Structure formats: structure tokens, C-alpha cells
């Protein structure tokens, strides 16, 4: 598996060389730029600040007084902690749309580097990295699972084993866009399980879920619940981007 992953990385580097063009706006850059982002895009992105939600990791404004975001004050989560790199805004959305829907799979290597750097700030240790799975039909249509590419890159950087086949998506679900928190929860109820073909022991293990974006946490919760029911010890989640801390509608 490791030989295959190294070969895949080399092939991707040959087809899509790193640090020639900004992965966000396409400007010419050199290899000194972090995550292959030009200076302008680095400034436009809403990067992690000093204050985050103590549960899900959403970025909080300096004047927000509660240690938990509005969502975590309203809903309990199945995971132990969440972490993120940026807040989901206009430029972050454009990058993730390119990555997920426009065939630019090579962006995942840079986002995986960002995840590695983010988790290097924490004292957490993990036994396994588990990408959030896609349904096989959807992955066949897209050609790749964006969380899987990010997780494999982070695994190479960190040395933590990546278990891409550990979780499976048992059924196709509705698109999450436009669904409310409870609708998202119902949409994902029972959608994930630990694969019967899984070869990774997870009893008592510390697992880090990998995903591209975190909004209400419904996907992370459904995956975490499946892992806990299979015996996992501690389950955390890290995403490249997260939604904003928005108060609930009255």
C-alpha cells in the first residue's frame, strides 16, 4: 500500500507539478508559497484565529463570549473534538468547488498539508486516520473521494496509518445543501458502518476523521457513531473548512 501511495504521489506530481500556479486563482507562483497559494489568496482566506469552539473547532469572533459555538450549545455531538483550518467563505468555497466538482484532485495534496500543519498545533495523538467515505456510485461518477486524498497525504506527512476502507457509506443520501440540522441528521441516520472487510483493529483506538468541510456536524456525528459502536475509543474530526458561527433562527 505504501509503495502504491508513493507511486500515486509521484504520478500526480508529474501530471500536476506543485507550486507553479496558485491552486485558488491560478497566478504564477514559486515553490516558497505555503499550500501553493499566492500571497493575495493567503490574505483573503479566513484562517484559524486564537478563538475556536471547544467542541467542534469552529472559528469564533474575538467578542463571542461563550466557549461553545451556537450549534454546539444546541446539539450534542458523537465525536470528542473537532478542528479546522479556515472558515468557509467566498474564496474557500471556490477552491473546494474546484477540488470536488471540477476534477482538480491534485488540490487535495495541499489541503492534506494544511491538515497536517493544523493538527501539529495540538497535543492529540491518533492511531488511525479515517476519511469520510463516499457512496461507491457517487465516487465512480466523480472519479475520486476528496477526503481520501487529503487523508493519504496527511498520513504520509505524519506517519499515522490511513484506513480508507474502514468506514463505508451504505446508501446514497440526499444532497445536504438546503437541509436544516434535523433534516441532515435524518438524512444520514444509519448511512455509515464499519466495513466487514476492514482489516484495521479499532477497539479502543484513537481515530481522526478527515473531511473537506464541516457545517452542522451531522456527517461527523454519523461517522463517529458508527466508529464508537464498533469499539473505537476517542474519535476526533478535522476538516479544511468549517461553516460560520451563526445564531439559530428565532
What's this entry about, in short?
With 250 residues, the protein is of the alpha/beta class. The chain contains 9 helices and 7 strands.
Annotation keywords:
250 residues, alpha/beta, two-stranded antiparallel sheet, 36% helix, 15% strand, globular, disordered N terminus
Counted by DSSP, the helix tally is 9
Question: Which value, in Å, is the CA radius of gyration?
Answer: 18 Å
Strand segment count:
7
* Helix content estimate: 25-40%
Strand content: 5-15%
Could you say which structural class the secondary elements and strand pairing correspond to? alpha/beta
Order of helices and strands: HHEHEHHEHHEHEEHE
Residue-averaged pLDDT, rounded?
88
| Unreliable stretches covering 5 or more consecutive residues | 1-5
Tell me, what's the shape? globular
Largest sheet properties:
5 strands, mixed
Q: Numbering strands along the chain, what is their spatial order in the largest sheet?
A: 1-2-7-6-3
Compute the separation of the termini in Å: 51 Å
Task: Describe the fold and architecture.
- This protein has 250 residues and is an alpha/beta fold.
- 36% of the residues lie in helices and 15% in strands.
- The chain is built from nine helices and seven strands; from the N terminus they run H-H-E-H-E-H-H-E-H-H-E-H-E-E-H-E.
- It has helices at residues 2-15, 39-44, 70-74, 90-101, 107-120, 136-142, 146-158, 181-188, 218-229, and strands at residues 46-47, 81-87, 128-131, 167-169, 192-194, 206-214, 234-242.
- Strands 1-2-7-6-3 form a five-stranded mixed beta sheet. The protein has a two-stranded antiparallel sheet with strand order 4-5.
- Helix 5 (107-120) packs across helix 7 (146-158).
- The chain starts with a helix and ends in an 8-residue tail after the last strand.
- The relative contact order is 0.17.
Amino acid at each position: 500500500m505504501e509503495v502504491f501511495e508513493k507511486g500515486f504521489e509521484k504520478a500526480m506530481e508529474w501530471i500536476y507539478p506543485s507550486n507553479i500556479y496558485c491552486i485558488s486563482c491560478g497566478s504564477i507562483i514559486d515553490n516558497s508559497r505555503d499550500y501553493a497559494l499566492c500571497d493575495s489568496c493567503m490574505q483573503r482566506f479566513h484562517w484559524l484565529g486564537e478563538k475556536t469552539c471547544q467542541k467542534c473547532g469552529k472559528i469564533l469572533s474575538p467578542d463571542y463570549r461563550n466557549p461553545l459555538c451556537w450549534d454546539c450549545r444546541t446539539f450534542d455531538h458523537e465525536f470528542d473534538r473537532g478542528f479546522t483550518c479556515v472558515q468557509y467563505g467566498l474564496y474557500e468555497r471556490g477552491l473546494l468547488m474546484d477540488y470536488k466538482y471540477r476534477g482538480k484532485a491534485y488540490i487535495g495534496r495541499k489541503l492534506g498539508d494544511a491538515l497536517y500543519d493544523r493538527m501539529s498545533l495540538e497535543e492529540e495523538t491518533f492511531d488511525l486516520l479515517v476519511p469520510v467515505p463516499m457512496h461507491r456510485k457517487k465516487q465512480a461518477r466523480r472519479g475520486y473521494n476528496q477526503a481520501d486524498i487529503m487523508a493519504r497525504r496527511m498520513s504520509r506527512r505524519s506517519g499515522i496509518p490511513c484506513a480508507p476502507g474502514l468506514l463505508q457509506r451504505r446508501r446514497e443520501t440526499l444532497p445536504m445543501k438546503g437541509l436544516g440540522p434535523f433534516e441532515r441528521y435524518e438524512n444520514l441516520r444509519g448511512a455509515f458502518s464499519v466495513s466487514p472487510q476492514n482489516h484495521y483493529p479499532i477497539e479502543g483506538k484513537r481515530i481522526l476523521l478527515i473531511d473537506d468541510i464541516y457545517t452542522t456536524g451531522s456527517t461527523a456525528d454519523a461517522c463517529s457513531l458508527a466508529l464508537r459502536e464498533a469499539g473505537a475509543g476517542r474519535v476526533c474530526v478535522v476538516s479544511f473548512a468549517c461553516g460560520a458561527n451563526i445564531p439559530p433562527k428565532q
